[in-house]
Amino acid sequence: MDDCGEGRGTNRLMVEKLSLSCDRLLSHLQLACCPSHCASPLQGKDLLIHCLLDPELKALRLTGHHGDISAMVFGTGRDPLLLCSASADYVIVWDIQRCYRRTREGVVASGTVIGTLLGKVVHLSFCPCDERVAACSGDKVYILNSNIEEVLSVLAGHLGPLTAAEFCPWNKDILVSISEDRTFKVWGLKMEEILYQSAVLSASPLLSVLLLERSRQLVTGSADGQVWSFTLPENHRCHLVTKLDLHKVQQRHQRHLDTVAPQTGGVLGITPDPVETAKPVLRICAYHRRLPDIDHGQQSWVWIGSSDGLYLVDLGTSELHMTLLFRDHPNLSITMAGSWAMSQGLDNSMIFVVTSLFEALVSVLEVNLLGSGSVDNLCQHLEGLSVMPRAPLMPESPLNAELKKKGPKPPTKTEKRGVKEQPLVFHTQVKSSGYTQSPRLKMFSPKTNVQKKTPGPTKTNKKIGCLVSDYPGDTAAPSVPHTNLSTVKTPTPVCCAQYSGNSLSLSLSLSLSLSLSLSLS
């Protein structure tokens, strides 16, 4: 792995701090980064650690794996700073400060093996206190002790291979896993049980998951650009809050920019692309500006890493605030991303480690929104600014216009006029129709000679009349055979005979376990 460049990119918003050329393709591997360091595989089996705070410091090389490294992640703490790496043979936890110190002393740095022969691990994650590690291999999640080689529990329940698993930041005994079966599950680690399992969310596999501590939400994304946000309450009954399509959100944002400033492009705008590309949600990371006056309104801002660039989305309003596409930054080494690693920087910046989808390249990007000169940034800081004029207004200024009071509209001729109000007058004599006439002698005369109509003869079906009509009671039983029907070749007794309800068929039960239905019509 060779350094290809450092500090590339003329745009102040997104700067390529480091570009590394690898000996193999790393497009779908989980790389690691934190505010101070980033890690990537070297020759498949070794680790290369770069210090982002001191670029002149020599990169740290760690050896210990016998197979190709497939996943790595930094711990949540900073003292000590832990790094976990996994291959098909071992899962190893490294103390970065201790490894630097032993390397300076001339001793080979080593880590602690916490798992052996777990298969191909595709995703790793630390718990909030760095005491446990979740390793996703196949359709199982292995919960490992980060200090010694001990498998604490094995979680199985997904129908497809797992893609990621993350611990709950506000409850270390809760784990959320996603899989290619397009569902997510909420696990209780104390009882090793499923607390909640979702339905199938999409036609494409789920690739990334994020737990927002401030809003207590669960966010997951799929390979077809769909993003879901669920609540994660104390009873673990998740409810859908937001669902958005990354491609549609981008189109809506572009239409808004075209109406506000048609010539806007580059940082704030999106260059129209005649070729429509897929936008898989490869990685989701929370974004918080460390400013007390605007921090309260950004509890649901997330960075979404896709194959064509970065998207800053507000899940609370489903609005796209910023788009950083590779095609708008031609000075970057990578044009199409295969995987992302994200971390909040030390000075309100974001650190991104991205691998190329088709080339053996790894880039370290830094995005700093504060001081970028963007319209969004200026609006955030000018919300409480008041401007006083130094001269009086011009006479023809529209600010001097006075509003005319709107009075009631005069009635038009076409309008329908209602009943006019008149004073109430009491009269001593009231003439009303009916009161001065004599009462009727006969109220009504009933009709007593009404003749009832006799019902006519009902029509019967000539075809079944002979069968439905009652048999005469004064006639002897029938004795002359009418029809002789042979049902089987050999003499067989008839066990039971039964007419149907409409007397149109006859059912016979024979002793040979046979049942016949004869039509009598």
TrEMBL record:
Gene3D superfamilies: YVTN repeat-like/Quinoprotein amine dehydrogenase. Signal peptide: none annotated. Transmembrane segments: none annotated. WD repeats lie at residues 155-197. Residues 397-419 are annotated as: Disordered. It holds the Pfam family WD40. It comes from the Eukaryota. Keywords: WD repeat. This is WD repeat domain 27. It comes from Hucho hucho.
